[in-house]
Amino acid sequence: MEEMEEELKCPVCGSFYREPIILPCSHNLCQACARNILVQTPESESPQSRRASGSGVSDYDYLDLDKMSLYSEADSGYGSYGGFASAPTTPCQKSPNGVRVFPPAMPPPPTHLSPALAPVPRNSCITCPQCHRSLILDDRGLRGFPKNRVLEGVIDRYQQSKAAALKCQLCEKAPKEATVMCEQCDVFYCDPCRLRCHPPRGPLAKHRLVPPAQGRVSRRLSPRKVSTCTDHELENHSMYCVQCKMPVCYQCLEEGKHSSHEVKALGAMWKLHKSQLSQALNGLSDRAKEAKEFLVQLRTMVQQIQENSVEFEACLVAQCDALIDALNRRKAQLLARVNKEHEHKLKVVRDQISHCTVKLRQTTGLMEYCLEVIKENDPSGFLQISDALIRRVHLTEDQWGKGTLTPRMTTDFDLSLDNSPLLQSIHQLDFVQVKASSPVPATPILQLEECCTHNNSATLSWKQPPLSTVAADGYILELDDGSGGQFREVYVGKETMCTVDGLHFNSTYNARVKAFNKTGVSPYSKTLVLQTSEGR
């Protein structure tokens, strides 16, 4: 019943209705709140001036909102009158329910008078805080609005149902909390006392058991208040006007404005409207039931989205990690090639350095020897060796001139990594809607953490891959014979878990599963090896 609480609160004060009245727009207000939002209208717009001008407008006709400037398009609430010298603008405020209301524009009534009996200033206007429809009050003021006795009764029952729990009246020692009340016996029972003292058989089977709160309300309800006519306060409602859709008294039919209207018996219309309300509630109840089931579906979707998100993120991380691993492996291969080229260049240069060093040492030695020979003063001895030395010098000079002083290797690495295609592929890496050319289910994945054996039975569990977009109609689980023989089907169905009984003890079984739909069958999953327990 807690959902009903907002229906029982006044839109102005935000509290439970106190002496609620019914406005012509069918909305309700507390009498005190109705007085607080009254606004005084200009004299030229009073009901008396309208009747004097022959306009023929009823006291309960709604005002022309454009003419009276009650409702501004720039403001979602309603404001005070504007454009009249005799009606100063009254600032508006907000109620606890967020509805814009007016503070009292007149002194509060004396404390000894109720809001209904307190005098209302002439030419007063009230605007419904819910639908913003405005109405000029007649001489009766707030007494011209009928009181909502039904709403008062509902509020009383609701407040009583929120009170402390009732105790069983038949418990001998410590009374337990009552669970039912028998309307015929007028006794509150707990479950043990009801079974012992009020069994559902024999004459007691016809008794009506109700919840304790409902029983307490039925106990405390006073005789139904008979509502009186708003036009003839001493007369009770006895008929129902079909045209005006309101209860009336016999004087209204004889001398009032309902004399020419179609009327029906109040009791018959009461039952008819109750029946219509019950039928309307049946349809609304079906919608509410569908809404509850829809909420359950949405909450299930929230859980599934969270689970799928975790699986999808794990799969995405695994795919990116695989790309990173592949890139690292390729990086290692390229670095190996660079190191190989590096070693080759160093070897060539170092060999050339070694060869050139030896040659230079030999040349330097020849040059020093020739210089010492030139220092000799013996002509005949010099001429004996000069031809040979001249030939050696020319030969050595020729050896240095055949590219010996040119590097055999450059310092630059003749390698250039072409990474632009890979960078472009990485930048283009994105999610795509997977549309398999052949709508066959993806290969199921055996969930190793949930697969186990116990004695001579085995339990296997599997699931569809998280990125699979093709639904599976069912699964086929296969086991071999425990000795490496052929596979045989042990389960076909929609479930993703199966327990296989009757296996051989101390045997090794191979299990695999595949999915199927109307199009075909998926590949088999990886084979799982299961070992049953040793025999007893």
UniProtKB/TrEMBL annotation:
One Pfam family of this chain: fn3
Q: Which SUPFAM superfamilies match?
A: B-box zinc-binding domain, Fibronectin type III, RING/U-box
Q: Which residues form a coiled coil?
A: 288-344
UniProt subcellular location: Cytoplasm, Cytoskeleton
Task: Output the Gene3D superfamilies linked to this UniProt entry.
Answer: 1.20.5.170, 4.10.830.40, Classic Zinc Finger (3.30.160.60), Immunoglobulins (2.60.40.10), Zinc/RING finger domain, C3HC4 (zinc finger) (3.30.40.10)
Instruction: Report the residue ranges that make up the B box-type domain in this protein.
Output: 163-212, 224-266
- Segments forming domain COS: 374-432
Q: Which PROSITE patterns match?
A: COS, FN3, ZF_BBOX, ZF_RING_1, ZF_RING_2
Outline what the protein does.
E3 ubiquitin-protein ligase which ubiquitinates itself in cooperation with an E2 enzyme UBE2D2/UBC4 and serves as a targeting signal for proteasomal degradation. May play a role in regulation of neuronal functions. May act as a regulator of synaptic vesicle exocytosis by controlling the availability of SNAP25 for the SNARE complex formation.
- Write the protein's name: E3 ubiquitin-protein ligase TRIM9 isoform X10
Report the source organism: Mus caroli (Ryukyu mouse)
Show the taxonomic lineage: Eukaryota, Metazoa, Chordata, Craniata, Vertebrata
Report the gene name.
Trim9
